[in-house]
């Protein structure tokens, strides 16, 4: 009889526990993520057992253990990448990403640690010199929206131009390291030939260090005077845009009164009284006045009287010279 009572009591207790869990779930379900995070963080700080359970669940999720590494050299392999990050803890998986078509490195990779604490340790020192280039890591779930895309990045990232082909990324970092701590930087190399393209980029951790590098009067590296400026100013050069032909409206060139355009009727076009000296037959009067000019968009010029010129006759009745037209050009008569 007593065993039966005990079983009934246990069953009732289990039913009560199930009903309590369901009730709690129904209460927690409508809550926002920020409210749940705040609630669990307070419970975890009060009860160590809850804190341990939260850590265990978080550590089993790769989102807290997987790192995205960018800025890798073209010749960096997966083995080299893992060797650089192994100092922080045991690596579960690590690989450089290669282009499927060309088989060449795409300049980035991923490292997944076995324990969450190892990933946090690596994030404490995100910049690492690998194969002569400064690589940077952040949580893979953040992608490119990590620490390097902070609002002040435009004031910390510098463009370095005019580099000698012999300057390596390591030399570049050593040279600019005198102004402050560098977060990221490298010489730009050609993907196919792996040769320097004559420029590079350096990102400082502080705006002050970037300003020092720009204001430094001695900008000579490997015997060459180099260009140092903010990367955004180099990227934002003005580009000349072509206006589409459809948007161009043809406009007629204005002409002075007295010179009508060919193929168009200009009944109001009246000669403005321009005068040109040329051999002509004698006029009855010594001078003539131009007719009054009609109102026009251009101010009319004052009239100039023509001087009377006596025409010399050749004994045979042929003009001594070819008649000259306007501005000294001869008339041509069609055959």
UniProtKB/TrEMBL annotation:
Give the GO biological process terms.
Answer: RNA metabolic process
Q: Does this UniProt record's set of keywords contain RNA-binding? A: yes
Q: Does the entry feature the keyword RNA-binding, yes or no? A: yes
Pfam families, sorted = RRM_1 (PF00076)
Where does this protein have compositionally biased stretches of type Basic and acidic residues? 1-11
Report the coiled-coil segments. Answer: none
Q: Where is this region: Disordered?
A: 1-20
- Which SUPFAM superfamilies does UniProt cross-reference here? RNA-binding domain, RBD (SSF54928)
Question: Where in this chain does the record put each RRM domain?
Answer: 65-142, 156-233
The molecular function terms of the Gene Ontology recorded here are: RNA binding
Q: Which UniProt keywords apply?
A: RNA-binding
State the superkingdom.
Eukaryota
Q: InterPro entries this protein is in?
A: Nucleotide-bd_a/b_plait_sf (IPR012677), RBD_domain_sf (IPR035979), RRM2_NsCP33-like (IPR048289), RRM_dom (IPR000504), SLIRP/GR-RBP-like (IPR052462)
What the entry lists under CDD domains is as follows: RRM2_NsCP33_like
Task: Write the protein's name.
Answer: RRM domain-containing protein
Q: What is the species listed in this Swiss-Prot or TrEMBL entry?
A: Gossypium darwinii
